[in-house]
Amino acid sequence: MPLPALASTPSARRCLLAAIAGATTGVLLGALAGCSPRTRYTPPTSPMPPNTVLLSDMMQGLSARPGFTEALLAHIDKGSRKGPALLTPQLADTLRGLILGKDWAGLNRFPGWTMREINPTVRVVGHVVGKDAAAEGLANPGKGATTAPANSALPPPAARRAVTSYIDLGPYTLDHQGSADHQTVDLDQPSILPGFAEAARGQGSPIDLGAGVTRGDGPDPNLAPTHAESARLAFVLNRLSLNALEDTPRFTANLGGRRATTPEQLIEALTATGHTVTVVDARYFANFGHFHYAAHGSANPAQDVMMPFWVNTEITVPGANRPLLIPVSHTEYEWFIRGPRMGAAVAFYFGIDGKAEFRTMDERNQPWVLNRHAHTYTGPEALEVTRLTGRMVLAYIHQHLRRPAIPFGGYYALGVCQDAVAAIEKKMTGEATLFPNTADAALFDDPRDAEVNQLIAAIPKDRTGDRPEPQRIFGSLPTDNLRAITIPGLADDLLATEAAWQAGTLQHTHGPRYWTARALEALGVTIAALVVYRLRRRPRSPSRQSRTAHQ
Hints:
551 residues, globular, five-stranded antiparallel β-sheet, alpha+beta
């Protein structure tokens, strides 16, 4: 509508023009401050690595099948030990909504939440899972959790059952056998445990979901052949870690005439008997699906399904005016042993199964998850990492005995896979370079585990939603070569962000420029309002009053 029709008098026109000018100034200043409106981001879907499809590609063909989406959700995290995050009810509802709503762009960046948004979805589950004050308090620290005293102990049979629920010991029990107060294993003899194929069948892997979808990645061709030795070594290291547990018979591992009663003593014995022992801090993109898909009628073999779990870093991608989303990483310590009596490979991490333990690591990794050895330890350093890891195993068992009602086996409240590794990394190198860390340091208060308590307290925490430092975001990545990343769109975002970080121009989505823009916009509106008010209050001149009277 023409301006004269809206403001028929000079005074009204001046007021309107002043208001428009003020409001326009605020908007322009806000835009100059770097806060123009965001548009919805549609991530690229190519190029893809060979023999790999996106989750959205698979679900576009299968989401209409009755019951398939629910079957998929039921298997995500089920039986997985190193998933990146709990699929809480709210996250599951979000994933379900993206699939049923055919929001394929959103599915390719699921969930894309900040830690500030993820944290409450985990803590609130204490109301549902525990249904008591203990569970609710542990899910929401600081609200009066019921915790057993550090020196309390369950009756021996109950304690042993509780312990073996959260650590795998194989044939090496916690029971007192007859009159002997110790148990032994002879590592000079070959392992008689099952190989990879038999062990996988016993665990029900792979799982067939129907419609050409299976879950389970199969054997790693380089590591699976030593599964029997690796499984025995993992069980032995776990059992040695528990020698300091109350009312537990002493367990001894014999090798080459040497006796070991702690994990570090066993590594020392391996080295002394001609074995090479290398410990690495290994980092991967976490795969929260482990699915494979063979489309109906396709002549191609089943393809890997790319399923990262995305987190919003609250860093602005330079030139894109949107937040940097990154896949959460999985981190573990890995031991590689080669020598005259044993060839084995084992890992340690705290998994979503609630177990902080030594484990086998011979399942194949899908190529897109990559793998970087952030640190490598040999000699005395390898012994120290092993010693600290054994202390972590014991400390987490103490946690389970004291807090049996803790939701999800303590996963998240006691940390995720990164926390224990970051804590040991900090001790070994002086830096903690992993994100996210979620352990509540207030729960690590058992005086029997004073060293572990201090290690956990020393690392950065991401429970309160504070922005992660760029050093930890880039430190968690499974490659030093960003161009090697095959997840569509991620390498470009990281390269641009890294350049801005190094140039000192990195911005946050709600950083100083954001609040400056909001303040300038508010200032413009305020100026407009004041101008309108003053113009309306200004007294009219005598000549103007005379003209008005003649009219």
